[in-house]
Write a structure and sequence with these properties.
- It is globular and about 60 Å long.
- It has one domain: Glycosidases (TIM Barrel).
- By secondary structure, it is of the alpha/beta class.
- 34% of the residues lie in helices and 14% in strands.
């Protein structure tokens, strides 16, 4: 592993890998953080990944829950091997709960039906062992902030971090989230990433596209006022929110690097750059400055002729973006839309759109792609397009 360690004290505005000042909910004194920048060697093999969601792995209604979970993993991996895919991006922490042994988060309800109940085995250890036997890499997919949606999970366990300390969370539009402005919440997210990197032989950790809740209103008015009272350098509310996310990303990255493992850290943001601004996701900074991420995988979930934004136009925006030397650019491709009436019906124009999009990503010089999601392999609407992709990937040369 090649590792460069370069101490930096960066500028204040917009960068989380910098000297930042943030007030927590308790209106404590501003905090000062110096981020040490590090990098890992950029992979040379083409990324050919597929996302596996927590819904796919849910076994709470199965009689033999452990057996059902392991059967699902075996089937996913067999399908991946047959399709010449080399990376499973598997959702291991969907609701601040885990499908692995964790000191920070309770067991996920998808394993037993009850959040916090020990399933009697380690699902992630099984995934990593079986995947590596087939030379398939594993990236642990995490939703960093989400605690609940309006209905899921139905009940939080007594050992859930929000139940133990509800100051770390906020309710927005009927759902619970870790508070992006909370130092304690940021520390919990960073510790969770470090725990994964230390305890499992995973190849990467990925955050998805959920950051500040959409249409979040003024839920953080007290946090912002406390920040303004405790610092002479006053960011706007938009800059404050963006800086909170940046600070979390930088701390997570540093926590992973401290494990002294070659574990990649990546983010899969929305493919439309404007949408990321609404979530206060500073993708430009993450890509341009070392110390945030090792890879970016924008979800360019558009058809070739989508009237709102075409696949090629969306990709062009990301290709133009400034990137640090160690950053890998992967492309999220929407297998779930193939053969449907999505994007004004333009997915019905041809049966080789997915294959063409993979061709475009390769011709553009990207570092690979990820398909969303594995369920598309067995969905009737998507089947013809997906089978065309599989034939293409098993017969065409890879990069």
């Amino acid at each position: 592993m090649i590792k460069r360690i370069v101490p930096l004290i960066l500028s204040f505005i917009f960068l989380a890998a910098s000297i930042v000042y943030v007030a927590d909910k308790d209106k404590s004194a501003p905090k000062k953080a110096e981020i040490i920048q590090t990098t890992v060697e950029k992979p040379t093999e083409e990324m050919r990944g597929v996302w596996v969601t927590y819904m796919t792995l849910d076994v709470e209604n199965e009689a033999d829950k452990e057996g059902a979970f392991k059967d699902k993993i075996d089937t996913v991996l067999a399908d991946m091997e047959s399709a010449n895919l080399n990376t499973m991006i598997v959702q291991v922490r969907p609701f601040c709960d885990a499908i692995y042994r964790s000191k920070a988060f309770p067991w996920s309800h998808i394993l037993t039906g009850t959040q916090g109940e020990d399933p009697g085995y380690d699902p992630l250890e099984y995934i990593v062992t079986k995947a590596h036997e087939l030379n398939i890499m594993v990236h642990a997919w995490v939703n960093p902030y989400r605690i609940t949606t309006k209905e899921t999970p139905s009940e939080l366990s007594n050992d859930h971090p929000y139940i133990k300390d509800n100051d770390i969370g906020v309710e927005v539009n009927g759902s619970l989230y870790l508070n992006p402005a909370s130092d304690k919440a940021i520390g919990l997210i960073a510790d969770g990433a470090k725990e994964l990197a230390e305890n499992y032989d995973i190849d990467g950790i990925q955050f998805d596209d959920y950051f500040y809740p959409p249409d979040c209103g003024d839920f953080d008015a007290d946090d912002y006022e406390a920040y303004r009272e405790n610092t002479d350098d006053s960011l706007s509310l938009e800059e404050f929110r963006k800086d909170n996310v940046n600070r979390m990303i930088a701390q997570v990255y540093q926590s992973i690097r401290q494990t002294d493992k070659n574990v990649l850290f990546g983010i899969s943001p929305q493919g439309n750059l404007g949408n990321n601004k609404e979530l206060y996701a500073d993708v430009e900074a993450w890509c341009a400055e070392e110390g945030y991420i090792d890879y970016i995988c924008p979800q360019i979930y558009f058809s070739l002729d989508n009237p709102a934004l075409t696949f090629e136009d969306g990709l062009s925006d990301w290709l133009k973006m400034s990137k640090h030397d160690h950053l890998s650019l992967y492309v999220g491709i929407p297998a779930y839309k193939a053969g449907t009436d999505a994007d004004s019906g333009t997915w019905l124009d041809n049966d080789d759109i997915l294959r063409t999009e993979i061709d475009i990503t390769r011709s553009a010089g990207t570092d690979g792609f990820m398909l969303y999601s594995y369920d598309s392999f067995h969905n009737e609407d998507n089947e013809e397009e997906v089978q065309n992709v599989i034939r293409y990937l098993t017969t065409s040369p890879t990069q």
